[in-house]
Design a protein that fits this description.
This protein is of the alpha+beta class. Helix content is 16%, strand content 38%. The strands form two sheets. The protein has a 17-stranded mixed β-sheet that branches. The chain has a two-stranded antiparallel ribbon with strand order 9-10.
Length: 278
């Protein structure tokens, strides 16, 4: 295959390369994934998505991080794929299959895309943690960060609540915590602080990626953690680096996430991009 077409999209700056693999699934090794993810020599992305056939939904989306590892969930990518499927099928709803399960998407009257991200898992085995812990108060600390909440939204999240999320050196502490001994599968690391208007400021270090402009599954984990800690009443706007997400969660129910998505461009990957991929 000399050329491979793709769509570049983003949700609040959380950017994705999306490849339609329904007719022919591309051979994407970890080295090739890293080559495409190189923002200087490749295309660059936070996650790469391969669309595959599904027997139980409108599409199956396979998710890869820019370091070549596979991820279980990605909320903003799900919103982008939902938009593509709804436009393709000329509907305002869709069902997307992921490794983490079936996700339902809907286009809202304002054009934003809302995803039912499913119910969170909160037991320590599901996060997963290496030892039994109260997941509302995990015994984990690095620098100024301590006493986090653990949430699994199809992928593992650790959420720290702080007085000022802007003041945290996330580039320093994110990788330390991602590889913490309590996290056998590593985790996405979030720092959040409450604003006077009831919204939350959220910054995210994504597992296998680094600091990103937005992370939908982290926003889901944060609204759950903030609700359980009594910081919000189950609804809040979360302000990420790339913009706002409208979040809601009722206990024992699914998390809903809504926000804007956008096209960046359409292109072709040439085989030259893989020549040095080893």
């Amino acid at each position: 295959m000399e050329q491979l077409s793709f769509i570049k999209m983003h949700g609040l700056g959380n950017d994705f390369v999306i490849i339609d693999g329904r007719d022919e699934n591309p051979d994407l090794t970890p080295a090739k994934l890293r080559a495409i993810g190189d923002r200087h020599r490749g295309v660059g992305y936070d996650q790469l998505i391969v669309l595959e056939p599904s027997q139980d939904a409108d599409i199956f989306m396979r998710i890869y991080n820019s370091d070549g590892t596979e991820a279980e969930a990605c909320g903003n990518a799900t919103r982008c794929v939902a938009y593509l499927m709804m436009k393709e099928q000329k509907t305002d709803t869709t069902v997307i299959e992921t490794v983490a399960g079936l996700l339902h998407g809907e286009e809202m009257p304002n054009g934003n895309i809302m995803i039912n991200m499913g119910a969170p898992r909160l037991d320590w085995q599901s996060i997963p943690l290496a030892s039994q812990q109260d997941t509302l108060h995990i015994d984990m600390q690095a620098g100024p960060l301590k006493d986090p909440v653990g949430v699994n939204m199809g992928n593992p999240h650790i959420v720290f609540f702080v007085d000022d999320a802007e003041a945290i050196d996330l580039e320093k502490w994110g990788p330390v915590l991602e590889h913490h001994a309590l996290l056998p599968e590593k985790a996405n690391i979030s720092v959040a602080s409450a604003n006077d208007d009831g919204s939350l400021r959220l910054r995210v270090w994504e597992r296998g990626v680094g600091i990103t402009l937005a992370c939908g599954s982290a926003a889901c984990a944060t609204i759950v953690a903030a609700t359980l800690r009594g910081l919000v009443d189950g609804r809040a706007v979360l302000h990420l680096n790339g913009g706002p997400l409208q979040m809601s969660w009722e206990k024992d129910g699914p998390v809903f996430m809504g926000g804007a998505i956008a096209y960046s461009f359409i292109g072709f990957l040439h085989t030259d991009i893989f020549k040095e991929a080893v």
